[in-house]
Amino acid sequence: MKNNITRNIENIYIHLPFCQKKCFYCSFPVHAIGKNKQDNEHFDNIQQTYLKYIKQEIVQTNIMLFKHHNQIWQKKPLKSIYFGGGTPSLFQPEYIKEILNLIQSEGFFIQDDTEITMECDPGTFDAEKIQFYEELKINRISLGIQSFNDKILQNLNRPQNAQTNYEAIQILKNSAKFKYLSNVSIDLIMNQPQMTCSKDKNNLSINLNEVDQIWDQDLEQVVQLKPGHISIYSLAIEPGSYFYEKNNFREGQFPLPSDERAADNFIKTHQKLSPIYNHYEISSYVRSDLNQPKHNPIYWEGNKDFLAFGMGASSLLNYRRYTRPKTVTRYYEYVEQLNKNPNFYLENGEDESDIQSQIESILMGRLRTFQGLDLLDIKNSYGEDIYNIICNKIEMLLLKSPYLIFQNQRYLKLKCPEGYLVCDDIVAEISYHLQKKIFRNKNK
Ligand code: SF4
């Protein structure tokens, strides 16, 4: 791999981990504060402490990268800042302002075209808060709707109901006249379990047909609303989530839909949305170029540097991943260490710099997208031998996979939508082949 002499930072992720309660499918690093607690003094104290530490982390990272290692790292005008969580819209907007001001005073350039995204959950913001976001030049909201159906929302242990969802959408519709806050993305979850998971005895059971019907209604509803961007995730059952640990749910097994049924849902969803939306990434649909996000695509590039701050957040810097501790207490200890020794940060990364990991990450990221991968990038970065090994494997795969497209020995992509369903398999086959060849060449 030819290493660049200097590397640029253009994208920042800020993790704000507070949620009202933990959703049953959630395996993210979150800190639940309890429902209706967002305005109480105790939560304000918690936020102030978190704010203090995240600000220290930003300052120390700035010293470490751009003063101690400024021969490598350079700041460029920021393309994106993403407030993710958790539920960032629970965080006081005044404190968001402090974070943005600090980012600027530390020498990062926020411009009018810097995309600033705020993940928001219905029931955690009002018109006044949205007006404040506009004043902060936050220009994109990612709204966690997940479903328009009360039973499904209860089943997922979401803090909101369908009515709260509609109220949140109405508040955002009124912001359409704003100068900055013009982009809204809606998140939905498909492939719900066909049984009642809620502890609420009044929640009636759901059978498979009803789950399917509700999904049709959710899709119809989102089409009517016409947001600029839609993210549709299949319900993932990850270790650490309530569904995994307490309900023993596993993807593809009852009460979740079978793999075949989940694949049918994926195709059905594509068919419903594609007349209006461009299905540009496995889980993402965009209505026009104006609604195309800038932040999420950095993850799909697979090798793009970005800075992240906050509990549980991961940065990727020069093929090393730096992940902070996943509880607030341990995160605060981590920042204390950083205050004593800013290089503590660089000493704790996970190395992803071997060729195998790099290429796997690039393939996995780019084959998720409609654009796919330009293999000339691989040739230029990793040399002719690696390029030839990959091309040979692609030629073999083309004989058995009708969903792989390879143009001019250069552009590799998956046929949309069917190809997206085999993305993991294709990446695994190419990676395995590459690993075997690299290993054999090393031992020659
Ligand atoms: S709102 Fe999001 S981050 Fe918070 S518990 Fe639910 S899924 Fe997790």
Overview of the molecule:
There is one protein chain. The protein has helices spanning 41-68, 93-105, 127-135, 150-155, 162-174, 208-225, 242-245, 259-273, 296-301, 328-340, 355-366, 375-382, 384-400, 423-442, and strands at 7-16, 18-19, 31-32, 73-85, 115-120, 140-146, 183-190, 229-234, 278-281, 284-286, 307-309, 314-317, 320-323, 350-351, 373-374, 404-407, 411-414. The protein is α/β, with parallel strands linked by helices and 444 residues long. The model has no long low-confidence stretch (mean pLDDT 91). The chain folds into 2 domains: 7-301, pyruvate-formate lyase- activating enzyme; 355-442. Strands 9-10-8-7-6-5-4-1-11 form a 9-stranded mixed sheet. Strands 12-13-14 form a 3-stranded antiparallel sheet, with no helix packed on it. The protein has a 3-stranded antiparallel sheet with strand order 15-17-16. The chain binds iron/sulfur cluster. Iron/sulfur cluster (SF4) binds next to loops.
